[in-house]
Task: structure prediction
Amino acid sequence: MPKSILIEPENVFAREAIRFADIPVNAYSKTVEEEQASHNPEDFLNIWRDMCGIREFETILNEIKTKGSCRGVAYQHAGPAHLSIGQEAAAVGMAFSLAPEDHIFGSHRSHGEILAKGFSAIRQLGDAELLKIMESYLDGAILRPVERGHRGTVKELAFRFFVYGAYGEIFARETGFNRGLGGSMHAFFAAFGIYPNNAIVGGSGSIAPGAALFKRVNRRPGIVVANIGDASFGCGPVWEGITFSAMDQYRKLWSESLGGGLPILFNCMNNFYGMGGQPFGETMGVGFIARSGAGVNPEQMHAERVNGYDPLPVIDAFRRKKQVLLEGRGPVLLDIVTYRISGHSPSDASSYRSKEEIERWRQADSISAFRKKLIENRIVSEDALEVAKADVDAAIFEMFRLAADLEASPRVTKGSELAGSVMFSNQRVERFDDRPPELLQDVAENPRVQQIRTKIRTPTHEGKPAPKMKAYNVRDAIFEAMMHRFSIDPTMIAFGEENRDWGGAFAVYRGLTEALPYHRLFNAPISEAAIVGAAVGYALEGGRAVAELMYADFIGRAGDEIFNQLSKWQAMSAGQLKMPVVLRISVGAKYGAQHSQDWTALAHHIPGLKAAYPVTPYDAKGMMNAALAGSDPVIFFESQKVYDLGEMFVEEGVPEGYYEIDLGEPSIKRRGKDLTMLTLGPALYTAIAAAEALQTQFGLSAEVIDLRCAVPLNYEPLMDSVRKTGRVLLACEAVERGGVMQTVAANLTQLCFDDLDAPPVVVGSRNWITPAAELEALFFPQPDWLLDAIHERIVPLRDYRPRTNQTLGELARRARLGV
Ligand SMILES: Cc1ncc(C[n+]2csc(CCOP(=O)(O)OP(=O)(O)O)c2C)c(N)n1
Ligand SMILES: [Mg+2]
Result:
C-alpha cells in the first residue's frame, strides 16, 4: 500500500517557531563516590591499563618512525602511522561499555580505538569463545607465533594475539589482521566488533549507518559507533550518512517491532585539528560540533559535548547514549573533546600550532591526570598502577618485537597473488540467513507478477521484439530476478531514490511496494554517497543490498563510496568480508549533458568491481539472477533506451523459471564470418542494424557479439571470432576516449595480432558533452558511422560513400584538439 503523509496548507502555513533545546556541554558532574558506586576497583585499573597500553603501542610506533629503532629493536616502517597520543581517554571511554556485538567503524587515526575496543571485548568474551576466534582466524596464522611458549591465561593470550595482529597489520605481515592488505589506516578485526577503519576522511560516516541498518532490519543486537574526526564534519558523505540515519520513516513508517531509529552513534573525536587546518575558528563555523545535531532532527541527535580528556565522562555519556539507541531513539551525536599531542604523523613538525599549546595539553595529559585521581582518591594504589603499567608495556613491547621480526612474522612472498586472489570472493550464496523472508503477499498474488504473466516472452516470427505494449521487457526481467531473490534471501533489501511508491525511478520496481515491508524496500534521501555507503555497511555486516542510482551521471556524487569503499573492502580484509551489493545504475538519454552519459569506463577502471551491462530481457534476467546470487559488488548498468524492449535474440523466449548467466561471458547475437562487431550496451542494436546493411548492401556477414559485461570478461569467444574474421570493430555509446572498448581493442590487438587484417577500430560517442535530445544523432554512434569506420579503417566497401569522417587523419585531428 502506498503511504499517505498528508501535507495540509493550513498546517504548513500556521505561525509558529522552531525551538531548540540546550545542548549540554561538559555537563558531567559525577563525584568520585558516585563513580565508585558504578565501577569496581578492577574497572578503574582496567581503564588505566588500557590507556597505558595504547600509549605504549603508539609510542613504539613513533620511535621506529622517527628513529628507525625502539629500545634496541631496529625497524624501518615505510607506511603511515597516524598516532593518537593524547586521545587515549576518549578511545577507552568509548569502548569501555560497548559489548562485543556493538560495532565500531573508524578513521585513519584509529589505532587507539581498535585497541580499546579489542581490550574491552577480550575482557567480556569467555575463554572458549576467545580460543575459537584465535584458532579459526586466518586458520590460526596470528595465534601460532604468539602461543609458542605462552604460559599465561587465555585472556592474556588473547591480549597478545590481538596486539600482535594489530602490529602485524601495520607492518604488512601475513600474520596481521588482514594479512597486511589493510595496513595502519584500514586495520580492523570484526570478531571483536571492530569494523573497517577508513583512510578517507569521513568515510565511515556514510558506511556505519548501513551497519546500523543491518542491525535493525535483521533484528540483531547492539549498536554501531562511527568514530570520525572533527574535520570530517565538513565532508558531504558524513552529512549524507547523518541524514540517512535520521530519516523519519524508521519510527513513523517501519514496523515498530524492528526497534525504531537506527542504533548509530556518530562519535566525533574532536581534537580541534584536521591536519593543520582548524575546524574551530578557521575552516568551519559551527563552533561546537555538538551544535550540528540541532539541525538534524527534533531530538537534536541527543547531542552533547563531553570532556574526552577524562575517561569517566566519556564512559558516562556512552552508557546513557547507548540506552537511547537501544530504545530506538537514535541517531546520536557525541562531541568528545580531546587533543592529539602527537603530530598528524610522526614527520609532522606541528608548524601550525604553538609549542606552548602542546605543552599545556601535555601538562593536562589524561593518563597522568587519571592516575592522580585514582591515587588521591585511594581508588587504586600507586603500586597496583605501576605493576599494571609495567605488565601491559612489557607485553606490548614483546608483541612489537615479534611482529618486527621478519622470520617469525613474514610478509607475503614475492610474486604473491594474494591481493589478486581476494579482489572478488566469487561465491554463490543462496541466502545470507535462514529465517523466512518477510513478504506482504504471496509472490503469485502480486499484481505485477500477474501482469507479466500475460506478456509475450518470445521474439516475433521475423526475429523482431514483440510490440512494446505486449512484450516482456528488460524492466520485467530485472523485476523478476529481484522478486525471486527477495523471496529467498531474508536479508535482501533494496533502497534508493523513489524506490518505493514511485516504483523505482524507471518503474522497474512497480509492484514491489505491495510485496515488501518498508524495511526491505524504501526511499532514501537524495544522498547518493549515503545510498552506496549504507549498502557497503549493510553488506560488511553480512546482508545483501541492492542500491539504485537514478543515472550514471550521479556516480560522481557517490564517487568515494563506489571507488574506494564498495570496491576495496573484500580485498583489504584479505577475503574475510564479503560485499554482496548490486548497484543498479541507469544510463540515460534525451536529457542532455548531465543525464545521458555511459560511465562504464569508471566502473571498469577501478579494481574490485564487477560491471555488467545487459541490454536484452534474456540477458538482464539471467545476469541479475547471477548478480543477486553472488557475493561480490556488481555495478549493474541499465540503459533507459532498452527498458521497454522485448526479446529478439532468443527464439525460445525468456524462461519463466530461474536461470543464471555467468557474469563475464560474452554473447554471440548474430553469426558471421567476414567481420566481428563487439558491442557493450545499446550499441548492440546499432551494430545489428549495421550488420544488416553490410549483408544486404555488400554481401559481408558480420558476427555481432555483445560483451554484456565489462568486468570480468572472457576473451576466448572474442578471440575465436576474430581468428575467424580477421577484422574487428568495437562499438559503444560511451565517449570513445578511455573507455572499456579501447581496453578490449588494445588487448585483442595483442591477443590476435597474427590473425588481424587491420587494427581493431573503436567507434564510440563523440568526446563531447551529450547534446539535447534533438541533436543526439550527432553524438551517439549511428549505423552509418560503423559502416564509415569499416570502410575507412578496416575493409573498403565497394562503391561506398561515407557520410561521416571516420578516417585516421580525423582521429588524429580530434585527439590534438582534445575532442
Ligand atoms: C577525503 C580526504 N581528504 C583529505 C585527506 C587527507 N587527510 C588525512 S587526515 C586529514 C585531517 C582529518 O582531520 P579529522 O577528521 O579531524 O581527523 P584527525 O586527523 O584529527 O583525527 C586530512 C585532511 C583524506 N585522507 N581524505
Ligand atoms: Mg581532528
